[in-house]
Amino acid sequence: MNILLAASEAVPFSKTGGLADVCGTLPGELARLGHQVSVILPAYRQSWCCGLPIESLGIDFIVPIGSKTVTGHLLQSAMPGTNVPVYLVQQDQYFDRDDLYQVGGKDYVDNCERFVFFSRSVLEAIRLLGLGVDVLHANDWQTGLIPAYLKIEYHRIPRYEHIASLFTVHNLGYQGNFWHWDMLLTGLDWKYFNWHQMEFHGSLNLLKTGLVFADSINTVSPRYAQEIQGAELGCGLEGTLQQRCGVLSGILNGMDGDHWNPATDPHLSAHYDVNSRAEGKAACKAALQRELGLPQRPEVPLIGLIGRLCVQKGIDLVVKVMQHWTQDQDAQWVILGAGEPEFERPIADLARRFPNKVAARLGFDAPLAHRIEAGADVFLMPSRYEPCGLNQMYSLAYGTVPVVRATGGLADTIIDASEQSLRAGTANGYSFTEYGDLALSETLHRACAAYRRRKDVWNQLIAAGMRQDWSWTRSAHEYVQLYEKTLARLKETPGV
Ligand code: ADP
């Protein structure tokens, strides 16, 4: 199959979040399964820093943006370690900037124009590069117009008429909402600006556009695909998603097992696998406690958390629980993250007041993230919502027992240690459902009690997690099946 993956970011060329990890890894896995895959991205200032050769293809092109035309230029590189070509759309006025989407915490005012340009460029690049494409795989709001252009403007053109589109939503919270006059920039007829298609409460919504026009839609976990059809997590698009539920599915992201492997991880002072985990983890825990200035006590449960310190990640609950636990519980905490000051402040305060119990590192530190995954006993992810989540998979691989809220990808990966699941051998962590500090605290008590007094249970959970397969190969197989379904859907219903 011939697949063209279009995205606004992919490692190692550009990254602001998990989208870049998916778009940087999935193409190589698909190629390994024997498919022809290409990737197309904007050429940001950041893209030149990845150290890979980027060459000009000597192809200039022009696309209409509202009443003007804008020139672009095509560059080529490749995904490292693969033969997957990466095409980069160069337009320095749009993409040669300090950051990808915003400056000083404020979105660039011309974000709509920038991604109208990129979306149109993707469709033109297919013709200019002579690509044979079966499935055009678009990702998130920045590429939401691609399925629309394909269905409305390109579907009668020979090279394009058999191209099916898949639209993947990595986080429904980011929708690309713009004022209605930006509709003029898209060049599409105002008749599509209605509440069934591109309009959302008077604004132009590019995520909704992708959801409406793509042949298939997916999210990054099966549970999240269900949850976003309800009012609580649907972010106002639940109606659109309900209407399209027949073509909506979920595929869990994989994790990069080369980069996240406790047997080979260069950031760790001791290495281990499922058989040598007892000694390996003990050494990593002692080293982590030393590094963080926490007392080196093997018997005390060490609870770790890594991530953006924001409401989505349930940090409000964590702060409340820590405020109680630091008073009367014998547990240690390590928090690594950056985010909203309302969360950074109380966490820093707890670290100051309870230096023997709390270590806080407010910033981004990738090597320390590896050492926390290895050295902690319990890993905390009490998210309000979680499209997929990666840290819980890293924790399982590193023999660190996850305590999570059962939402999205967390619900799809973590099986709570109940009597039944322990008997069945499926349990690999602890989870709770209700979003509240009491539920979190109670679940943490269960985990810490097992850590201290039920070594048999604890060892069973660790072994179960370490033996699971969360590789990209598994996800890539599911994407291939979805691409096939998407092609079949196009044949069934080719029109708008
Ligand atoms: P999201 O994409 O919603 O932020 P994920 O769990 O899917 O959450 O992925 C977050 C990734 O970023 C993980 O690899 C995590 O280890 C990493 N990460 C987040 N914050 C930090 C930090 N402060 N330091 C190091 N790594 C971090």
Key attributes of the depicted protein:
6-stranded parallel β-sheet; elongated; alpha/beta; 39% helix; Rossmann fold; 18 helices; binds adenosine-5'-diphosphate; single chain; 496 residues; 9-stranded mixed β-sheet; 2 domains
Structural notes for this entry:
The chain is α/β, with parallel strands linked by helices. The chain has 2 domains: 2-254 and 473-492, Rossmann fold; 277-469, Rossmann fold. Helix content is 39%, strand content 19%. It contains 18 helices and 20 strands. A 9-stranded mixed sheet has the order 3-4-5-2-1-8-9-13-14, with helices on both faces. Helix 4 packs across helix 6 and helix 10 (315-328) packs across helix 16 (437-453). It starts with a strand and ends with a helix. The model has no long low-confidence stretch (mean pLDDT 96). Bound molecules: adenosine-5'-diphosphate.
Low-confidence stretches: none
Q: Give the CATH architecture of the largest domain.
A: 3-Layer(aba) Sandwich
Shape: elongated
- Under CATH at level 1, the class of the largest domain stands as Alpha Beta
N- to C-terminal separation?
24 Å
Helix content: 25-40%
Biggest sheet strand order reads 3-4-5-2-1-8-9-13-14
Rg over CA atoms? 24 Å
What is the SS-derived class? alpha/beta
Provide a brief overview of the structure.
The chain has 18 helices and 20 strands. It has 496 residues and is of the alpha/beta class.
How are the SSEs ordered, and which strands pair?
Layout (H helix, E strand, L loop, with lengths): L1 E5 L11 H15 L3 E7 L12 E11 L2 E11 L6 E6 L1 H4 L6 E2 L2 E2 L3 H18 L6 E5 L5 H10 L9 E6 L7 E2 L4 H4 L12 E2 L2 E3 H8 L2 E4 L2 H6 L10 H6 L4 E3 L26 H16 L9 E5 L8 H14 L3 E5 L4 H13 L4 E4 L4 H10 L2 E4 L9 H7 L3 E5 L2 H6 L5 H6 L5 E3 L4 H17 L1 H12 L5 H21 L4
The structure holds adenosine-5'-diphosphate.
